[in-house]
């Protein structure tokens, strides 16, 4: 990772109807984007384990790293990403996307 790495965080709360199997399937599909979309340097995900009680309902985090804004911008319009978003949306109760330059 370099000083110019751009991190793309996606915080999610799934609908009550979303099964654990569906969440796992969504996570696998999200991770697969690293193989099908150029410019994704790293992918990771996890569930909230903070004891602080400040998650505001968000339960899952997905993080993708890009070399810079151009790579992130290419990801955002890539057909594989757009198809994933359409698959993902019906299961989301709440989502927050936050990008930042890692230092």
UniProtKB/TrEMBL annotation:
Protein name: Stress responsive A/B Barrel Domain
Lineage: Bacteria, Pseudomonadati, Pseudomonadota, Betaproteobacteria, Burkholderiales
Record domain Stress-response A/B barrel: where: 6-100
Stored InterPro entries: Dabb, Dimeric_a/b-barrel, HS1/DABB1-like
Residues making up the signal peptide according to the UniProt record: none
UniProt subunit comment: Homodimer.
Record organism: Rugamonas rubra
